[in-house]
Amino acid sequence: MAKKRARRSKEPPEPSHDPLFREAxxxxxxxVAHLSTxxxxxxxxxxxxxNAVLLSGSFVESDLRSALSxxxxxxxxxxxxAQAKITFLxxxxxxxxxxxxxxxxxxYILGVxxxxxxxxxxxSIVVAVVVAHGTRSWTPPQMRDLFPSVSDIFLQxxxxxxxxxxxxxxxxxxxxxxxxxxxxLRSVWLALKxxxxxxxxxxxxxxxxxxxxxxxxxxxxxMLLEMLFVYVQKRLNMGTKEMENLIETxxxxxxxxxxxxxxxxxxxxxxxGREExxxxGREExxxxGREExxxxGREExxxxGREExVQIGxxxxxxxxxxxxxxxxxxxxxxxxxxxxxxxxxxxxxxEDE
Length: 354
Prior knowledge:
With 354 residues, this protein is α/β, with parallel strands linked by helices. The chain is built from 17 helices and 5 strands. Among the domains are: 14-141 and 157-170; 267-353, no CATH class. It has helices spanning 18-25, 28-38, 41-46, 62-65, 101-118, 152-155, 173-178, 185-193, 198-203, 205-212, 222-235, 240-248, 252-265, 267-288, 291-324, 329-336, 340-353, and strands at residues 53-55, 71-76, 85-93, 125-132, 163-167. A 5-stranded mixed sheet has the order 1-2-3-4-5, with helices on both faces.
């Protein structure tokens, strides 16, 4: 079956932050690391974080899913006979919301409770942790702001939705970099913090890379490294050669790992494609029996090989995203800058091959 080439959008959308956020917070160590910085020692002591479970699926209606980039962990409480649980909702915002965050979170909390009650489970306390970044710092608007003309006598009847708010722009770089408990999450925080500041992103790229490869990750977690460096490249609007040059500026220790990861993203597919193109070009030239045909065939093969190489690399990355993440077709399409129909077709082919 002939492979179809990824069709690029006429006007590539700005790289999405949500896929990187979701991938990063789908690892227990990152979720726990963040909670350790925002919860009190008394709260942390009651949580059985070693047995926290990542919940799959969405708890909200389809018209709200596009507005949320949620990752949900459910954690049992220690020393409780009733098996009580706390649900942690990690939500990401890259710009000030047009309406109070409480409205979105309230719908999500209700969705969690509906699902639990429908499954015959007692409802859990839902703790929302909102992670924000952007071109500037901002304070979350409150639900009461929607009712400027209403007396406090009636505002008391508004539902109260408390949440933990972390704006990365407000965190000094030194605080992020010095917090070793955050581990590789430091790379993600720095990348998100400077997503709208190309100069700052370049200046912090060395630390982003060092923290990202500071510990050996399993095969599944290599996906996070690939997504991180693709994200940085897209935010910097760099071509392959420019990104390679940036990697060469890294200290020797992390440079090898980062270069290896980046080669997996780009170079492997290109090398295979070029070699296949050369073979096809030589074979085409022999069939035609003329030296001119050989030259033309080799040249055409090289061109097609380079294009096929890029396509092979892209298709492999898309397949890994489909297999190893919970991202939707639309989210994958926005991150890889391809049309959603192509991602949907790949997902269908993978299902048929299983």
